[in-house]
Amino acid sequence: MEKKTISRDGTSIAYESSGQGPAVILVSGAMSTGGTMAPLAVPLSDHFRVVVYDRRGRGESGDTAPYSVEREVEDLAALIEAVGGEAALCGVSSGGALVLEASASGLPVRQVAVYEVPFAVHEGGAKERAEYTERLTEALAEGRRGDAVELFLRLTGMAEQMIQGARQSPMWAGMEAIAPSLAYDNAVMGDSLVPRARLASITVPVLAVAGGASPSWMREATRAVAETVPEGTYRSLEGQTHMVEPGVLGPVLAEFFGE
């Protein structure tokens, strides 16, 4: 990351930008950094100033205890100020929950796009999330970072054999390094149910996108976001999953942000 800005609580937030034009800030989800979003920045940077950043507690950004979702909203406020005072936001997975909250908080945001925020649409999903929260909190409190990562991977539906394979991979050390930030994404997701009252307060256009090959509950949750915000649009990308291809999502975002 080339640049840094300072959030309200003194935390250093590392970011970099590419391209010229209206600012678009890309927000990553769990177990990811600004670098994870860099491929998506490429198709957008022909038309916009695209900003990727390391969320607090990961990559080159700092961290300050105690954590709260409000601090992450303040991080976005600092970034928006650093890039000109107004921006569009795009969040992927739990990063989408953060950009929706930032918009509902009244930050100077002109448009919001989200890709598959994993909200629960039924009580069963909320119960699963509550059990995950309890076990994640316990694992992190005891310093069992590897177990915390395993819990998250199981939550995403990864097969046990693949999880054990991941534990033996060179990537595992990096995953353990940012494991404490899993608690941050979990906090951003709240009780995991679609926050309908909060979404109803958003006053800017929102594009909610899902993959056509993703589980039906994921598409249902994405549609619920589009239907709950006052100015919402739902799009499904044929053949795409939660690991969306930047070359497919990028043009859809460029069209929306160019409106």
From TrEMBL:
<dbReference type="GO" id="GO:0016787">
    <property type="term" value="F:hydrolase activity"/>
</dbReference>
<protein>
    <submittedName>
        <fullName>Alpha/beta fold hydrolase</fullName>
    </submittedName>
</protein>
<dbReference type="Pfam" id="PF12697">
    <property type="entry name" value="Abhydrolase_6"/>
</dbReference>
<feature type="domain" description="AB hydrolase-1">
    <location>
        <begin position="24"/>
        <end position="243"/>
    </location>
</feature>
<dbReference type="InterPro" id="IPR050228">
    <property type="entry name" value="Carboxylesterase_BioH"/>
</dbReference>
<dbReference type="InterPro" id="IPR000073">
    <property type="entry name" value="AB_hydrolase_1"/>
</dbReference>
<keyword id="KW-0378">Hydrolase</keyword>
<dbReference type="InterPro" id="IPR029058">
    <property type="entry name" value="AB_hydrolase_fold"/>
</dbReference>
